[in-house]
Amino acid sequence: METLLRQGLEALGLPTEGAGRLVRYGELLLEKNKVMNLTAITEPKDVAALHFLDSAALLTLADFKGKRVADVGTGAGFPGLPLKIVEPSIQLTLLDSLNKRIDFLKEVCADLDLEGVECVHGRAEEFAAGHRESFDIVTSRAVANLQMLSELCLPLVKEGGWFLAMKAVDSGAELDSAKNAIATLGGRVEQWRDYAIPGTEVRHRLIFIKKIAPTPKKYPRMFAKIKKNPL
Ligand code: SAM
Fold first, then answer.
1. Of ligand 1's atoms, which has the minimum distance to the CA of residue 124?
2. I need a surface site. Which of 84, 151, 209, 223 has the fewest CB within 10 A?
3. φ/ψ of residue 69, rounded to 5
């Protein structure tokens, strides 16, 4: 896995110093995955590409240096933890509603001796009560459709900051359906960038949503309401 990761990081033009830590993270992930549902991807080479390099690729698309970043619905730590491992200056909050996954992430951070990572058990729509408009960047992958996800993520972003949504390259219709929600929540779609995961045929899309105005206080609503009546 280490060679693949080094080659992939090099292909992305990223530093390779984090490769050793990523390998260890991969070992911990696959070990824990035997007793707990963390990932459907179980081949080390696929973990390297589809989890680690897919996550790290964001560093080639946006400036994360020294930024306060929250990863919403991080699961087993994607994309947040590989971002932090490759770009250590990030101040990271990993947020997930499943406590077992947060416990796993705490173990990984202790094992890798990572500083500046906060692992929080909670729902994004509740976490927003104490953390509105407090992150430079909020990331999210594979959590909800963009219309609902925007209500979970945009309230957390500072004015002038970014919500970066990791999506499929064919997410055009999903983006169209989310435009009203994004505007209502104080966001504006600035661009999207498609990228390839090195060593694979896989292409993904990063959607850049800029926070241009404060989110009205009545958002986010409780999840049942978001789901029943999306913006
Ligand atoms: N982002 C990771 C990835 O790409 O591998 C995990 C994706 S997993 C399919 C979705 C995760 O989002 C789950 O771990 C789930 O517990 C979490 N989640 C769903 N809704 C959430 C919410 N409202 N607040 C926080 N976490 C949430």
1. 24
2. 223
3. -120, 135
> CB-based contacts of 169: which residues, under 8 Å, 6+ apart?
194, 203, 204, 205
Check pocket membership of 38 for ligand 1, CB cut-off 6 A: no
Structure tokens that stand for 188 in this block: 């504006």
151 CB near ligand 1 (under 6 Å): no
Ligand 1 test: best mutation among 54, 96, 147, 225, most atoms within 8 Å of CB?
A: 96
Regions of the chain with pLDDT less than 70: none
Ligand 1 contacts CB of residue 211 (under 6 A): no
Rg (CA), the chain: 17
For residue range 104-120, list pLDDT tens digits in order: 999 999 999 999 999 99
Whole-model pTM: value is 0.98
Task: Please tell me the distance between residue 96's alpha carbon and the centre of ligand 1 in angstroms.
Answer: 6
Closest CA to 162 of 137, 181, 187: 137
Tell me how far apart the alpha carbons of residues 90 and 86 are, in angstroms, rounded to a whole number.
Answer: 9
User: Which residue, among 157, 149, 139, has the nearest Cα to 212 in the 3D structure?
Assistant: 157
